[in-house]
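Much of what follows relies on a compact textual record of a protein's fold. A complete example follows; check for yourself that the lines match position by position.
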Amino acid sequence: MEFNSKPKGILVTGVIGEDVHVTGIRILEHALRNAGFKVVSLGIHNFDNDFINAAIETKADAILVSSLAGHAKMLVQDLRSKCIEAGIDAILLYLGGQLVVEKKDWPDVEKMFLDMGFNRVYPPFTVPDHPISDLKTDLGVGGNKPWK
């Protein structure tokens, strides 16, 4: 990864709910910073409103939510509608981790969260390069496209 001193976008990151699994999001945050993004880390034990308030305060381009305890469905089901209600309906929403407790095929899990309004959904053990590449595409950065 190449370090770029000019921020490519402002990202709010954190772990939702009572989940204390912080290692994965810390690794991702480090990689995001090295890729030139400005990361606003909320850490652990966050509610959906914490992400929304931070996004409004920082004028974030995206919210990246981590959940490894398997309870994401009940914790994030209203995140998109709350973003719309708060006036940040165009914000990118990314979700990753061990999102469900029950055994389900990944395409079904991904579709469930995409249907809730997330732009991107990642399974456990996703390497940081994947969401970084997606962010660059979704934000229009990299290559010859300047970030707006």
